[in-house]
């Protein structure tokens, strides 16, 4: 197992983590992912952790790093498929995954990404919305 | 690693194989997948093997089994993301993955599935097309 595959689905990238992230694998994933975002112009990254039964502080940090890097390249990151037991353990360990959005499954994650991208696009398209108060749209 | 996650994406299911399929894991995958098809009514299964560097006769047989089982439940299976080296090795070993369709990546696999489902639907909607010869549609 040399690298975790990154699948392109429309304007999103999907990463399914099925193995324990050790140091080199995590670095490879970070580097592969930023390159993939840059190459494809992806607007969102979905990280599926439904096969992960333990999220420790290392993995939490890697996920946080990925989200921050993706944000710098104008892509949002959503972590999907967290097992209930993982959520319990994370909070018991005091890890709240700051800066990382989550969704129950891939479909809901995609909806979340799509709504965020639309919000961003509409804000960018109408920067003087406040001046327009009262006009119907 | 107890089971390979199955992700639902619209009317398709996506399975990313990242580890060697040993006997019990393969059986679990088969059973999980047919249950997921039955539960979700999925019309297509995408099996991503981009992280697999060796496909031997065992794995070829498992993929063939999955495709046959899915077909019985009215779902098509497409294997996507095969590495060039894997294609070379498969043919050198005399394994041609009979009954299994392939596509270059997930996006092309989804297009293939969508076109197959549309063809099937249009054939089912117009069973007496031959009697209608000459009428414009």
TrEMBL record, chains A, B:
SUPFAM superfamilies in alphabetical order: SpoIIaa-like (SSF52091)
PROSITE patterns in alphabetical order: STAS
Organism superkingdom: Bacteria
STAS domain span: 1-113
PANTHER family recorded: RSBT ANTAGONIST PROTEIN RSBS, RSBT ANTAGONIST PROTEIN RSBS-RELATED
Record's protein name: Anti-anti-sigma factor
Naturally occurring in which organism (per UniProt): Arsenicibacter rosenii
């Amino acid at each position: 197992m040399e690298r975790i595959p990154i699948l392109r689905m429309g304007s999103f990238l999907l990463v399914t983590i099925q193995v324990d992230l050790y140091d080199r694998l995590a670095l490879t994933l970070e580097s592969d992912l930023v390159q993939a975002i840059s190459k494809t112009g992806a607007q969102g990254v979905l990280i599926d952790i439904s096969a992960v039964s333990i999220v420790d502080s290392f993995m939490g940090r890697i996920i946080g790093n990925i989200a921050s890097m993706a944000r710098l390249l104008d892509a949002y990151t959503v972590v999907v498929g967290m097992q209930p037991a993982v959520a319990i353990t994370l909070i018991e360990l005091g890890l709240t995954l700051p800066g990382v959005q989550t969704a129950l499954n891939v479909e809901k994650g995609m909806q979340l990404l799509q709504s965020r991208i639309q919000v961003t696009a509409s804000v960018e398209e109408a920067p003087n919305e406040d001046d327009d108060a009262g006009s119907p749209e």
